[in-house]
Amino acid sequence: MASSYGTDADKSALRAGYLAARQQIPAPFKARMDRSIDETLLDFPLFAEAPLVLSYISYGNEVDTHGIIQGVLESGRRVGVPLVDSATREMAFYEIESLNQVSPGFKGILEPDPDECRLLSMDDFFGSVCLVPGLVFDAQGHRIGYGGGCYDRFLWHYPGDKIALARTMQISSNPLPVESFDVPVDFIVTEGSVWACR
């Protein structure tokens, strides 16, 4: 069931509402939804054929990406994960060969070791896909994240396809508030469905 907190709500209210709703999901139900999202993603040719996948490393109640990352690595494809500069909030992606190369970093989120992993450049990104986190998305691909702006700064210059992973309850039936620096995703993968946003 799609949910919405209304078009007149500001981002802070929406963020708080969806954070609270996500925390209420029972663990077994969350695990089933996330497995369904994983299966849908694996059947999506754009993802399945991408030679390089940029992926967030899930934290807390986010859609779980650990199995996705492991599966991509086992398929022989490349994976990049983000490292955030806590001072500037700029985000860079580093290529990992194993989840053993990550450890808690910015806000306790697992991040790559820049001394062990290769920094990916814009040239690497052509033909890649980027899995984008968020709290709520609308039909046009606009999203509300956690308020840091890290992904929007990165996605502004990113040349590949942007894929959101979202449980159906994270899809708003109303348009979300949008600011000039917000970057929409191209596709949203939910339990059993892929939504083309633009």
UniProtKB/TrEMBL annotation:
Asked whether the keyword Transferase is assigned, the reply is no
What are the protein's UniProt keywords?
A: ATP-binding, Ligase, Magnesium, Metal-binding, Nucleotide-binding
Known EC number: 6.3.3.2
Cite the InterPro entries for this sequence. FTHF_cligase, FTHF_cligase-like_sf, NagB/RpiA_transferase-like
Regions that span the bilayer: none
Q: Which cofactor does it need?
A: Mg(2+)
Identify a single GO molecular function assigned to this protein.
Answer: ATP binding
Enzyme group, top EC level? Answer: ligase
Query: Which catalytic reaction applies to this protein?
Result: (6S)-5-formyl-5,6,7,8-tetrahydrofolate + ATP = (6R)-5,10-methenyltetrahydrofolate + ADP + phosphate
Coiled-coil intervals in this record?
Answer: none
Binding of substrate, residues: I57, E62
Q: Which GO terms describe its biological process?
A: folic acid-containing compound biosynthetic process; tetrahydrofolate interconversion
Amino acids binding ATP: K11, S12, A13, L14, R15, R143, I144, G145, Y146, G147, G148, G149, C150, Y151
Q: Which PANTHER family match?
A: 5-FORMYLTETRAHYDROFOLATE CYCLO-LIGASE (PTHR23407:SF1), ATPASE INHIBITOR/5-FORMYLTETRAHYDROFOLATE CYCLO-LIGASE (PTHR23407)
State the family named in the UniProt similarity comment for this chain. Answer: Belongs to the 5-formyltetrahydrofolate cyclo-ligase family.
Name of the protein described by the UniProt record: 5-formyltetrahydrofolate cyclo-ligase
Q: Which organism is it from?
A: Collinsella tanakaei YIT 12063
